[in-house]
Write a structure and sequence with these properties.
Length: about 250
């Protein structure tokens, strides 16, 4: 059972177990050029060097964030998901117990059936798992209600990247395990919400989206303005904390 995604307690990164030595999620090899699907390995960055810089982490990480922002702006959901396979889940039942868990991914499955899916959820609620179509629908639905004509103290209502979150070992901030990108926009009705997309590297070091989380910006300002939160995955408070840093312009 997943614990509720409580703001300030369950800051989500969605790191996949066992990818600790891989290249950065969303970050290419040292000799490569940053692209939407591969970008030069981001080296660990000390927390002391980040404040006041246009890019709080390795430039390749920020390049990937801006590329993802551009794709969201033009509604290129397929480009964001790419060929991401999702995480293997062994379903224990095909009937949703009503507590999030591995649903709706495992709906109708037989016990022991393996399906591949993505973590999704809204903060202050139970998380769950969904398939590729569900992930695409979640991103598309979030984009569909944006009202770019509105504005507030944070700026335009159009979708924009606000922060990048990387694992924080207190002495260094290391993006090589993966990172989360936090975007925000004003939706119909004047409410500012955020969208967090989580990326981790596959075996070849290519960035793949593994999770999507949403919530009200007013209740989760840490993700828009920066700060340190506990937990890399929902319901796993023992996983490394995450440091969110503003993406400069």
């Amino acid at each position: 059972m997943r614990a509720p995604l409580v703001a300030g307690l369950c800051v989500v990164m969605g790191i996949v177990t066992g990818c600790g030595g891989a290249s950065p999620a969303g970050v290419p090899s040292p000799s490569g050029n940053a692209t939407a699907t591969a970008a030069p390995a981001a080296s660990p960055t000390t927390a002391g060097t980040m404040p006041g810089t246009a890019c709080p982490f390795a430039a390749s990480v920020c390049d990937f964030a801006r590329q993802t922002e551009a794709r969201l702006s033009r509604g290129d959901v397929a480009g964001i998901i790419g060929d991401a396979p999702g995480r293997a889940v062994t379903c224990t039942t095909g009937v949703n117990p009503g507590l999030g868990a591995d649903f709706p991914l495992c709906t109708g499955a037989v016990a022991g059936e393996v399906r591949f899916g993505f973590e999704v959820g809204a903060f202050q609620s139970e998380g769950g798992m969904t398939d590729r179509a569900g992930l695409a629908g979640g991103i598309s639905n979030w984009l569909a209600s944006i009202d770019p004509a509105r504005s507030d103290r944070l700026g335009s209502g159009a979708v924009r990247a606000f922060t990048i979150g990387c694992p924080d070992a207190r002495t260094t901030i290391d993006c090589r395990l993966g990172f989360s990108l936090v975007f925000s926009a004003i939706h119909t009705g004047g409410v500012r919400d955020f969208l967090m997309l989580v990326f981790t590297p596959d075996a070849a070091g290519t960035p793949k989206v593994v999770g999507l989380y949403t919530g009200l910006a007013s209740l989760n300002m840490l993700y828009l303005t920066g700060g340190r939160g506990a937990g890399l995955r929902p319901g796993e408070p023992t996983s490394p904390p995450v440091q969110y840093m503003p993406l400069g312009r």
